[in-house]
User: What shape does this take?
Amino acid sequence: MRKIQKISILPCIYLAVFITLTVGVLLKAKFIQQFDNFGQQLIQHYDHKHNWFFTAITSIGNVSWSAIILITISLWLIYHHFYRETLFIGFNVIVFAGLSNQIVKNIITRPRPTPHLVPASGFSFPSGHAMVSVLLYGSLIIILHRHLKSNWQRRVASCLLLGLIILIPISRVYVNVHYPSDILAGMAIAYTMLYISQQLFFNNKGVPDDSLK
Assistant: This one.
């Protein structure tokens, strides 16, 4: 019981961070501006080598690439009869990362920073790329942990996917299409959503031996 209570505190913290940032952005609070300025100064050190790298990384989180990755993973899961996992990752990306992000963006209506290193349209808060990175690759981490039997395979896969979860949001600040507060808010609410969906789809299901039908 204590272990469950400790784990469930994390999504509450993530949600509190998201609410704090949302209120701060709406009120144009000074701490938001200070946080954004600090994050931009830390990340935005432009040169040709870094420009190429972060431009390539940020494209991985674009709608087209995310859709291709989601469809590819879903087809593989369906082929292996992992239907619950297919619904899990599809729900997270389409409903949580896609639909809910657009709803919140159109409520907050925060303009993006300028100028951009890559084309960008729409509102800024919260970052859709940050939400997609957490909900797409975070879902994949959970799925792989359920089905990979080798601990070293789990660790390698988790490290690679965590790298994308971290780098994609950072790239959005680097190319100056998002403020750091957009990124932190997107990741915070996405982690909360990922926890909720994991409980809904896999709560007390354990790790299957072969497949989950």
Remarks:
- The helical segments are 2-27, 30-43, 48-60, 63-79, 83-108, 128-147, 151-174, 180-202.
- The chain is about 75% helix and 0% strand.
- The CA atoms of residues 42 and 174 lie 9 Å apart.
